[in-house]
Structure formats: structure tokens, C-alpha cells
Design a protein that fits this description.
Blueprint lengths: L2 H27 L12 H8 L3 H4 L8 H30 L5 H27 L1 H6 L2 H22 L4 H14 L7 H18 L11
């Protein structure tokens, strides 16, 4: 392996350790405490919070369908990009050759995802309401993830882009634990807390209307 491979592996280990520290802190804080009288099913509400509620009850998403769709594609592309990075490292040992059709599917999918990422970045910059709600971390996180996806596409197209690919991965991995991207850990806790709160009060899952 070359020096930038080791650099990325080091960044990955630092990222994992830091995210684990955030996770352990969440576990240490324990479950929510609610002193009101319980009237619902918390387990069902938590399941609803992490599934259906993310589709049709996500704040005002129904008012911004194109943006919501772009965000979904962008997040899927992000997960695929990280899985691809892990594959590249494993492949240094196993030497697996991906079928060409899979490579082209990845290129097409990640190109679309990167396009969605940059479009969301531009919208955040030009839309006054969104800009007023944003800070530097929002822009940096969006930019780093979008560049990493773009670097993934470039590397799939041409192995000569290997250095820029691993450097972009390194920067992103080191930034994850200190910026908003650490919501990779806090997202699950937030959905649990929402489910707990509304499930305890018998609000979630919503009741079916009477026929």
C-alpha cells in the first residue's frame, strides 16, 4: 500500500474512535425520563419514528418534494460512497474485479448523487430563508461529501485519480466527528427520543381515521 492509503486508514480509525466516543456518551446519558402518565406503546412509536414517519411526516417535506427527493438520493449516495471505500481497502487483499456493468451503475448513481449534493449546496447559498438558517458547518459538510462522491466517480472512471480520491476521503473522515456529519450517530438517538416522547403520549403511531 502507498502512503495515502495508510493516511486514509489512519483517518478512518480516528473517525471510528471519535464516533464511538459520541455513541458511548449517548448510552451513558441513558433513556429519556418522562414523568407524565404513560398512555401509549413506546416500542411501536419508536419503530414508526424510524420508518414511516421519515417518509410522510418529516416536518414540511411535502412542500419541497424535489429538495426532499434530492436529499434522499444524496444520502443514499453517501452510504454507497463509504461502502465503496471499504470495498477498495478490502480489495487490496482479495483482488476482486467488479463486473463492468456494476461499475457503470455506480458511476451513474454517484454522478446523480453528487449532482443532487451540489444542487442542495447551491440552493442553501442562494435561498435567503435557508441561508439564514445555515452556518459554516452546513456548507463545509455539504461540500466535502459532494466532493468525495465526485472523487469516487472520477476514480471509477480513471485509476489515475487515486491520490485525489484518497485525500478527499481522508479530509472527510477527519471532519466527520467534529462537524454536523456526526449526526450519523445522533440521528438514531433523535429518532428514538421522538418515538419515545410521542409514543408515551399515545400520539405515534397515528390512529387510523374512523370510516
Amino acid at each position: 500500500m502507498l502512503w495515502y492509503h495508510w493516511l486514509t486508514i489512519g483517518a478512518f480509525l480516528v473517525c471510528i474512535i471519535a464516533l464511538m466516543a459520541h455513541f458511548i456518551r449517548l448510552i451513558y446519558l441513558g433513556k429519556p425520563k418522562d414523568y407524565s402518565r404513560k398512555s401509549g406503546n413506546v416500542t411501536k412509536a419508536v419503530a414508526y419514528s424510524a420508518t414511516v414517519a421519515m417518509i410522510d411526516h418529516k416536518e414540511s417535506a411535502y412542500l419541497h418534494i424535489p429538495t426532499y427527493f434530492a436529499g434522499m438520493v444524496y444520502h443514499i449516495g453517501t452510504f454507497v460512497s463509504f461502502l465503496l471505500l471499504l470495498f477498495f481497502f478490502i480489495n487490496m487483499i482479495l483482488q476482486i474485479t467488479l463486473p463492468q456493468w456494476i461499475v457503470w451503475v455506480l458511476i451513474a448513481g454517484l454522478s446523480l448523487s453528487a449532482l443532487c449534493g451540489f444542487s442542495l449546496l447551491i440552493k442553501r447559498a442562494v435561498s435567503k430563508p435557508m441561508r439564514s438558517l445555515s452556518n459554516a458547518d452546513d456548507f463545509i459538510s455539504n461540500l466535502l461529501v459532494s466532493l468525495f462522491q465526485l472523487a469516487s466517480v472520477a476514480y471509477l472512471l480513471c485509476s489515475c485519480k487515486e491520490l485525489s480520491y484518497y485525500l478527499s476521503a481522508t479530509i472527510l473522515l477527519l471532519y466527520m466527528p467534529v462537524g454536523k456529519l456526526k449526526h450519523l450517530v445522533y440521528f438514531f438517538a433523535a429518532r428514538y427520543h421522538l418515538g419515545f416522547f410521542y409514543g408515551w403520549r399515545n400520539v405515534w403511531p397515528p390512529k387510523k381515521p374512523l370510516q
